[in-house]
């Protein structure tokens, strides 16, 4: 497992992922041929006709430091819906139904760079084929960068790009930062005074670009 600087891809058996409820573990066979590292956790367990429809309550949680996170599930015809929460707020629902065993991926929006908690729960809403099984393959998050762009000051009331809301904070690195920031003409408080001259203008773009190139 990596720290919040570089990010990490966590296999389903990584100890950082905490499981509660009727989860089972599959390694080898059972659709693991397409799984990351050949295994996955599934809920409910055991997979019987009685428990597939009744045994709900599976939860998987992981704390991470970063600006984005993705969830990899294994889809199939007997899969149901998974609900995704970040910091206690529901941010998505993933339908695991697919015609064949394959990866189903969910991606978060860009988050404020910092420490967050991801929670995946088994929904009480059945999938397309009546299934309720959720199969977790991996979790992957993007780190904040070891030396992100530092805000010299905040421009506007909306806060700077990627969670930079106060002078001296470090913003996370991402391919959309230049487009998002400078494409909107500096509106919404998203651009910052990169060269610390108390003015947000094209000179700050040159400063921003130089720092960006130094990072890649």
TrEMBL record:
Source taxon at top rank: Bacteria
Gene3D superfamilies per record: Galactose-binding domain-like (2.60.120.260)
Name the record gives this protein: Carbohydrate esterase 2 N-terminal domain-containing protein
Organism encoding this protein: Candidatus Gottesmanbacteria bacterium RIFCSPHIGHO2_01_FULL_47_48
């Amino acid at each position: 497992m990596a720290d919040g600087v570089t990010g990490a891809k966590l296999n389903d058996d990584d100890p950082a992922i905490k499981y509660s409820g009727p989860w089972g573990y599959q390694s080898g066979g059972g659709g693991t041929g397409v799984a990351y590292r050949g295994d996955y956790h599934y809920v409910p367990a055991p997979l019987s006709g009685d428990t597939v429809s009744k045994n709900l309550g599976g939860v998987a949680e992981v704390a991470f430091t970063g600006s984005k996170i993705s969830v990899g599930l294994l889809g199939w015809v007997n899969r149901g819906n998974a609900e995704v929460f970040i910091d206690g707020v529901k941010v998505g629902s993933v339908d695991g139904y697919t015609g064949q065993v394959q990866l189903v991926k969910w991606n978060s929006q860009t988050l404020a760079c910092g420490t967050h908690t991801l929670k995946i729960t088994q929904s009480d809403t059945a999938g397309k084929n009546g299934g309720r099984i959720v199969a977790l393959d991996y979790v992957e998050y993007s780190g904040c960068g070891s030396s992100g762009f530092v805000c010299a000051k905040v421009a506007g009331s909306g806060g700077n790009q990627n969670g930079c809301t106060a002078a001296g904070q470090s913003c996370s690195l991402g391919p959309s930062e230049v487009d998002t920031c400078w494409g909107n003409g500096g509106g919404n408080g998203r651009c910052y005074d990169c060269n610390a001259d108390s003015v947000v203008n094209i000179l700050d773009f040159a400063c921003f670009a130089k720092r960006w190139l130094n990072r890649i």
